[in-house]
Amino acid sequence: MIGQGMIGKGMTRQGMNRAPAQPEYRRPWGLACWFDGGKLVVDSFVRGSAFRCPPRFVPLLAGAGDPVGEARLLARFAELGSPDPRRHLNTLLASGGLLTVGSPDDDRDRELARTWDWGIRTALYHFSTRNVGWATGQQEAVFLSGRTAAKPAPAAWRTNAGLSAVAACPPRRHRPGPLFETIERRRSRRNFSGAQISLHSLGQCLYGGLGITGFAELPYRPRTPFKNTPSAGGRNPFEAFVLVNAVDGLSPGVHHYSSSEHSLELRQPAPPGLRISALMGEQEWLDRAAAIVFLVAEFQRTMGASGGTGAFGTVYIEAGHIAQNIMLVATDLGLAGVQTNAFLHDQVEALLTVTAPTQAVLYAIALGEPSDDYDSISGDPISAEKKAVNDA
Q1: Coil, strand or helix: which one is 41?
Q2: Facing residues of 42 across strands?
Q3: pLDDT tens for residues 78-110?
Q4: CB under 8 Å, gap of 24 or more: what pairs does 8-17 form?
Q5: Greatest CA span in the chain, whole angstroms?
Q6: Which tens digits make up the pLDDT trace of 123-180?
Q7: Which of 114, 210, 282, 301 could join 237 in a cystine, given CB atoms 3.0 to 4.6 angstroms apart?
Q8: Residue 307 has what pLDDT?
């Protein structure tokens, strides 16, 4: 007899993890339900699929928290009135309503349930906003023109005009100097030339966003780094992976930036024929960027400091802190830069070798040499006629 935590004679841990001879299935941890027009919708949000579920099958899903053998599951479908139990089982498997025990999806779901400390609601938000479709520039223009006609956009700022007790602030600049000049010059620019940038320039941008400036020894936590950007609880939950296209002294491919060593390590060469815009909303100007910095969240760092769900939002906020610093350094160095979160997460993470469910690419900053041959806002090529007018 095998006791809990023991391995029987002739068995290995690897053998215990193999799928049983008869397939077993279970309900995923990452499952949510709601009603849409009176129809019950079940969302396997980690898988990224949703389906309409006959209400009579809800007891079956509710009872499948632990593995259930195939024969028992088919019998249960029949008990609940299914005219074709096999078809309904296959439908739930294909849509992610059930997982095959021992499959990669099952392993990933179990790891997520074990490591995601912020509960189901934050997981629902996080995974439901991944891998969404992104419109092309032309599609966006059509959408916005129709939306603006039907529902005018709200004002982009508020004023204090007509209000009482309004105090005029001193002049915008506290004092003249390079800091405010750089802040005021910062713009999102897509006019990348495709030319090389120096390793020094890339390193300065990475240091500005993620560089470590010191350490603190604090109770109840590992050694805590001080960085150039603020971080809730000092957890600093981001790593930077850089897709290098044209950087002097670096091979094209995916590099990891170590903020503690201020170094870049090649993780994998660029795949042959890679067109990164195909993974990033067809933003074609990204193909001419010298480097793209992907900010990868390590959620467990912040989870370790706070089990409260409110801490989840701070991770997204910190991506903005880091990106702004990178952009300010790029501006100071005369580089063009633009930020985006329009990408297919699963495919980008596979490219970066990011695999854990508590890791995620949240933001990307493209950097490169600017060119007058492209429009800085749209990134489109400038015609010879328009360029002649601009040069006049």
Answers
A1: strand
A2: 33, 51
A3: 999 999 999 999 999 999 999 999 999 999 999
A4: 17/102
A5: 89
A6: 999 999 999 888 877 888 888 888 888 888 888 888 888 888 878 887 766 666 788 8
A7: 301
A8: 65
16 — pLDDT class (breaks 50, 70, 90): very low
Q: In this structure, which topology does domain 181-384 adopt according to CATH? A: NADH Oxidase (3.40.109)
Strand order in the sheet with 99-100: 68-69, 24-26, 99-100
Whole-angstrom distance, CA of residue 142 vs CA of residue 120? 36
pTM over 0.85: yes
Q: Which of 388, 362, 387, 361 is nearest to 374 (CA)?
A: 387
> Cα(377)–Cα(380) distance, rounded to whole angstroms?
8
Round to whole Å and give the CA distance between 252 and 23. Answer: 44
Q: Spell out the residues 6+ positions from residue 69 whose beta carbon is closer than 8 angstroms to its own.
A: 20, 22, 23, 24
pLDDT score recorded for residue 339: 97
- pLDDT of 2 over the 50 cut: no
Query: Any idea where the domains of the chain sit in the sequence?
Result: 23-115, 181-384
